[in-house]
Structure formats: structure tokens, C-alpha cells
Amino acid sequence: MSDSPLDLMKSIRAQIKEEFGEASAVDPSNEEESALYLRSKVKLWVPTGSATMDAVLGRPKYGIPSGKITEVFGQEAHGKSSLALWLIGRFQEAGGLAFLNDTELSFDAEWAEKLGVKVDQLTVFPLIPRESCLEKYFNMMLGIMKQVRKLHPEMPLLFVHDTAYATPTKEELDSEDFMDKKRMAYLARAFSACLPAFNGFLSHYDASLLLVNQVRDNINVKYGDKLTTPGGRAINHFSTIRVVVKRVAKLEGGIESMVANVKNKLTSPFQTARFKLTGVRGFKMVVPRKKK
Q: In the sheet that 122-126 helps form, which strands lie side by side, from edge to edge?
């Protein structure tokens, strides 16, 4: 028997498979085996139509990945929700389905149409006071994933949750004090409980989740970036891609914003793209100038 690392690794894999099953140990160099058992492998990609935005929100020349969580965060009035609506339009353009959890009750059908959304093909789940909660939204999304995949195994599927912080939790609904100071802890606990399992369901059913999040000032930071996102660290850890939206200029009747990924497990991070939002034209990508 050879003592080479490759032979030793093959022997270990064979032993693990015999004891725990075929799916327990995967050879990543074996394409057939990886496609069967590696849930981390992206099976569906939805292009955005912009090379720079593809690089920010997924992988260059591919687009947005299925089976992953993407967090979009930033300050108010910088274009987070409009970017999310524009991405809904891209999924619909690719022949997919999109669903919106409108926890801020801010959805406007006319503005969505201007951003390229086919409103008649969109389902919105509004926040119902004293009834809707984070756990209920996650259960609804899971039920939809199961239903869609029975009929259409390869249809692009997107869920947009806008926003994470505006969603009450079951623990919060059970509390009679609507100004409970423990709300931050309730939300962090709920996301920590839901995301580990839900992340696996997204991968299994090849669906994408776009979490729009707000920001807060971290008063304990003296130097560097003082902004932090609410909802606990679970969102940060389980998001494959994290994108910050920053307004860089005010235009006549609109704004210009920059999108930058601060985390990307699929390709190199710290890519940027720019877009313009105006009341007349809606959403328009800014084409980067070629370097001479």
C-alpha cells in the first residue's frame, strides 16, 4: 500500500462512506459526486444585465447565485429597497418567481413598475400588526419553496425580506409591552434560531434570499466605521454575500449610489458598481469609464 497523501485520502474517504453513507465524504475534484452531494455548489445563476453588478452581487459573467443569502444594508434613502425591486425585475426577466416580505409597509406598485418589476407576477406579504412575525415569514417561504420545486425544479426563485429589523418576532408578539427594551435580543435570538436551518433549505431548494437591513450607530467605536447592522451576528455569518449601498451624489430629481460588497464567498470581495435613481427614468446602471 502506498503512503502518498492521495492514496491515504482515498482510503479514508472509502472508510467513511462505508460507515456513514455515500454522502458523508465527498471528493470535490469529482464533478459527478460534487453535483450530487455538495449542497454548497451553485446550480442556478441569474444575470443582472450589468457586468459590474454581477461581480458585486455574485460572480462576474454569472450573476446572482441560487441557494444563498445576500444581505443589502445601508443608511436611509440610499437606494436599498429600490435595488431590491430592480433585482426582482431581473429574476422575473429570467423567467423566475419573486416574493416580497414588506415588513416596512412601504411597497409602491407604480415605483416598482418603473424599476422593471412585473407587478402582476409579484406576490407581496405585508406586515399584519400583532400577527406577522419572523418565524411565520420563514415558514411561508419554506412552504413556497417546496411547492415551486415540485412543479419547476430549475425555475429561478427569489425572496426579498425588506427589512430585517422591521420584522417582529414571536417572542415580541407574546410580550404585552410594545416598547420592550429587550427587542434587540429577541430579534438576534430569532435570526440565530432560524437561519442555520433555513440556510440549508435555501441550498436544498435552490432559492435565493435577499435580506435588506438597516444600520445603527455603534457608540462604542471611537475610530473607523461606526455603523453596525441590527439583528445580531447570525445574519453576517450566514450571508454568503454582504453588500453596502452608499449614496455618492445628489442628482436633479434623484440620487447616484455606489454598491460595494464587503463579503463574498464566491469570488473576490470589495467589488463596486454604481447606479442612478431618478423619478423619471427609474433605475439606471452607471457604466464605468475605461482606463486609458
A: 122-126, 97-102, 157-162, 208-213, 69-74, 241-251, 254-264, 272-278, 282-286
